[in-house]
What we know:
Layout: H1 2-16, E1 19-30, E2 35-46, H2 52-94
Antiparallel strand pairs: 1-2
Amino acid sequence: MKKTISAIAATLLLLATVACEKRTEREITIGETSTSETSTTTITADVPAIDTTATAAAKENVKEAGRATAEAGRDAAHATGTALEAAGKKIQKHAKPGNQP
Length: 101
């Protein structure tokens, strides 16, 4: 789980340091009776390459955590069912004769 958080933090840090460049070009045309100006703005961003090895490792860690959570849930459900069954037997044992099904 700590590896997953570290991978996510590293990815966010890389995205925060993305290099951006903004360039504006202007063209002025002067005619006999008029002047016109055209402006073009270009924004480019350099996005770093994503480390696919780290991404694959993070995905596997998430899958393992999901499997562990599911297994823990099944174990807890089994333990609860066993406890309820034992409690029901104990109640039947102490019930008055004739009150049992």
